[in-house]
Every structure is written in structure tokens, then in C-alpha cells.
Amino acid sequence: QKEVEQDPGPLSVPEGAIVSLNCTYSNSAFQYFMWYRQYSRKGPELLMYTYSSGNKEDGRFTAQVDKSSKYISLFIRDSQPSDSATYLCAMSASFQKLVFGTGTRLLVSP
Amino acid sequence: DTAVSQTPKYLVTQMGNDKSIKCEQNLGHDTMYWYKQDSKKFLKIMFSYNNKELIINETVPNRFSPKSPDKAHLNLHINSLELGDSAVYFCASSLGGMTVRAFFGQGTRLTVV
User: Fold this and answer.
1) What is the rounded CA–CA span in Å between residue B21 and residue B78?
2) Which residue of B has its CA nearest to A87?
3) Across the 113 residues of chain B, what is the mean pLDDT of every consecutive 10-residue run?
């Protein structure tokens, strides 16, 4: 079993839809939770970063962490075609290496 | 002005060859990383250097040798390349070992034929 599980998709939605991306994990030592966005043939770029449990909002993006369920989510409101990319969740214990999920490919059609 | 830059962007080479990938960051970060992304997009850390000192060395074949001449540079040398080494290699950097805010380069797509 991988430390971090993520549905690879692809997830196809129409423009304007609310998108929900999720990851589960097994290591209870993880405290830092990140979402990276990766466009085709580009490097990952950090979207959201959350420490411990709770919600964090940044524009159209909301990150949620439920440590009791070992489950994290990224919501994208009013999705745009420019949101089409692979979304990677990542997490780490304090000052330790990042462990990534396999990424979910999102396709937003106009 | 590119924050984390890697060269070359593409590398096609034959099995058995030796090749190097270079990485430079101009963010003033003190920690740099090499990640490997396989064909299924799985991203896994290989090495990490903090102030030129190796701090993370995952289970990577000895054919892979990182070198950090200074805080702003981290190179990756690969000996005796194998077909299974084909992947995209990403360099990243962060401040104070805080991998949570790592900035990634554009990647080097290595194809071994």
C-alpha cells in the first residue's frame, strides 16, 4: 500500500463546475499538506499549503484536511479551461521529505 | 528570470552512456533536491542537499551521484544509463529544509534508447 493514494483520473468537467480532488494517506505523522498543479511538460507549482487539520481558502481554491480520517481535499470553484492540469497532493512530517500522490488529471471543457 | 533552471531540457542517449544534468536556483534557497517522475506521473525524491551537505539519500542506484558545488547549484551525474532510467528529472529548492514550499524546475526529460 502506498503512503499516499490519489485517483489518477482523468476527471472531466464542464467549465464553471465545482471540482473536488482527494487524497488519502496512511502515515499519521504527516502534518504538512500541499497541493501542486502541473501543466503538461512543466514542473509542479505549489498551489496550496496547509498545516495540520482545517480549511484554507485562496481565491477559487479551498484546501481541506481531515487528519482523523487521513483525508485531504482540494476544491476548485467556477473551474476554467486553464485549470486543466494534473493536480498532485503532497505531504510531509516535520522537516521531512515530501511524499507525493500519483496525481489526478483534470480536464475542464469550455 | 527563471527561479530554478535545469539543463538540458531534453536528453536522448544510448544505454551504457554517462550523462549529467545541471540545476541552478537564484532564489537564495539553501536546500536543493532531485526528484524523479516516472511515466505514470509518480514523483519521488532521490536526493536532498542542505548547504552543500547531503541530507536525504533515498534508495537510488549507485550509478546516480549528486554533486553540489555551492548552495545555488545541484548537479546529477548518471553512469551506465539503463532503459529504466528514462523519466523526467526535476530539480527543486526550498529555504531552511522546508520541503513544504519547494520550487520546482521545468524538468529534464531523459530518454534512454
Assistant:
1) 8
2) B41
3) 90 97 95 92 90 85 93 96 96 82 94 97
